[in-house]
Amino acid sequence: MAGKKGTGLLLSLVLLIGLSLSGCGGNNSNNEVAPTGTQADSTAAPAASDKAVATEKTNELEQVELSLYLPGGPDKDVASVEQAINEYLKDKINATIKINQLSWDKPADKVNLMIQSGEVFDMVYTWNFMTNAAKGAYLPLEELLDTYAKETKAQINPAYLQAATVNGHLYAVPTEKELGQSVGFAFDKAIVDKYGFDVNSIKKLEDIEPMLKTIKEKEPAITPLFMNHTDSLNWFTVYPDSEDLDGSNEIPTLLDYKTMKVFNEYDTPEILARLKLIREWYKAGYINKNGATDKTELKDAVKSGKAWFTYGNMNPTSTNDWTRLAEKPMVIKTLLPVQVSTKSLQGSMLAISRTSKNPERAMMFMNLIHTDPVLYNLLTFGIEGKHYKKVGDNTVEFIPDSGYNSVSSWMIGNVLLNYLNKDEDPKRVQLYTDWNKNSKVSPVIGFVFDSTKVQSQIGALINITKQYKNTLYSGEKDPEPILKEMNSKLKAAGLDAVISEIQSQMDAFLAAK
Amino acid sequence: MEPVTNNEISRPTNIILHIIFIILSITCLLPIVLVFMISITDYDSIVLNGYQFIPEKLSLEAYAYIFKDYTVIVKAYGVSIFVTVAGTLLSVFISSLYAYPISRADFKYRGFFAFLIFFTMLFGGGLVPWYMVYTQVLDLKNSIWALIVPMLLSPFNVLIMKTYFQMSVPPALIEASKIDGAGELRTFFRIVFPLSLPVFATIGLFNTLHYWNDWFNSMIFITDTDLYSLQYLMYKMISQADYLSRNRALIQGSATELAKLPGETIRMAMALIGIGPIVLAYPFFQRYFIKGLTLGSIKG
């Protein structure tokens, strides 16, 4: 041990000399990560890319294999990407990486099984983050982050780290991407131009009414307002200054930002007025008849000309995303100021497993995917010439059926390090920066509801809400009696108990603040 | 075979019965025809017109998507066939080796072993310990044996075999072979086995279907595409198409290709590909199945 400490000190010295020789410039992509092993070298700052220094560093680190569990895929050609990554990582942190893609069918269940059985693995995308963090499935990361991922900590938005903190411990490193999400519309540009609609005048859902009328009169083939069983108008809340706080996101418990009180969103005059309006729209023939059960995707409805706009969550690059999906030019109008809540920030994060044998090395790897574009693009896009072609300095085009396309940048790392996809907006970086600047951070960021005490009520409430929500928002029936029935059922199922539980936790959170 | 006069059906009844069965057959076949038609319909025209027997616009996009990676499908077929054949043979063999001793009244520890298998039928350890055994004790994750070993011994099959041995192999016969100088193994393979072919066939068929239809073990243990079984591959393709179309917000950059999948038609094309082997194999199997059961019923 003493010997090891000695070499560590020596190493730090070498690093410091290297650092002073090359200066401290270049704060991200060229940086190397400080080596691990001893306490001493944690003081060593990231070294410059001096080859000699790098080799000496990696000699100190014995080679390890890190396993990484991600959603999606599995891709056929993942092995060749792993190999390329491993060659690249050798000089950096002397680790090899094993990418395990869990495919889209129940990946969370598989990871739960791995966690419960105590399987040894290193890094994992955080499904059921709250539950798993509370159970102790992940390693607390504060010290690791301070020691091995200084650059990441310096560049990441602090709100993100706050949202990944449970009971005072940081349990994951969130993907650096746009902050929060917003709700809005994506209109078929051809129709908008044809009738000269001013989409920028839309401030709330109600403002689209004249447009629906025009479409109804002039375009008999188009459903003015198309909805299906997943996309209904409940995207557009009638309470802009509020946040959904329960763990499920499926039951009617909103927090009013002004009064900091939790209330049942289905028991107010506002919701009745909104639902009555939808009912009017339905009667006027704006809405498709079986909206509550229709299974057609909005993108397909727009693509085939059955609908002329879609709605839902929007992000800074939505114009492009929707244009690509609907295969025709689209114009976006986002409605609310972008809301940044704990939940929206927890969207995609990477955690280190409690069973990891090499948490330090895993953290170094995580630091690299947040700061090293070479590694990051290798991981998310694959190998140049094999999985993608460069069509510009920073712009790439995917090679179809290349066998590596399901590791997406939103899953891990720092989205802004990515090359641009050929059909992406070239102003992406600017769009993201503007988006984040205009975001409104929730006053209760970091609050996380612990639902263990009212778990059974929440289960019952979810069922009731599901049963009524689509019917209410489809406009097919008079909302008043349905709302009444729904509210009495919700009450009987224990909504009040859930609300008071959230309220008391919220009060405690605010008091501690 | 000569028709028995007493059992002959009168002409009108015969016609009515024929009509009933023709209608029944049509109701069985039409959905498959519809599924086939949907699978070759252009996705946009499904969105506009719904399902139709005569598609407005044809498209083989769904098949193109599925067979884009035909090597994956061929491999999955290979895995499924290997697992089914090897699994069935092994599991029939192992089940019978367990069932035979506990069927013998002169086996000393009979009660204990019978209880052991019966106990596991009633009480299981649950998913997590089960998973731990295969991944950590046996280290079978991402191995083809993970698809075979978990289903090797089913208590239910063992009990069926045991009962059959008890009913159809007279103890006197075993005694006689012993007197004639046969050892236990010889008795089992030369006397008991030929006498019990029906139960071997029946259990074999159970296992064949079981192994062929299994997707759960693939889902839990396999992350290597080369080792996917056919059932799981199709299950995964459908849930992937589903997931991606439901979560468009997640689809950025590289997953764009996937976002354009023609959802509904893929599902139908997949159903047809899945039917394939069963349609071919079932009549073949069924013959043995019925034979096996009748043989058993006559002898037993």
UniProtKB/TrEMBL annotation, chain A:
Gene3D superfamilies: Periplasmic binding protein-like II (3.40.190.10). It comes from the Bacteria. Residues 443-511 form the DUF3502 domain. PANTHER family: ABC TRANSPORTER SOLUTE BINDING PROTEIN-SUGAR TRANSPORT, ARABINOSE-BINDING PROTEIN-RELATED. This is ABC transporter substrate-binding protein.
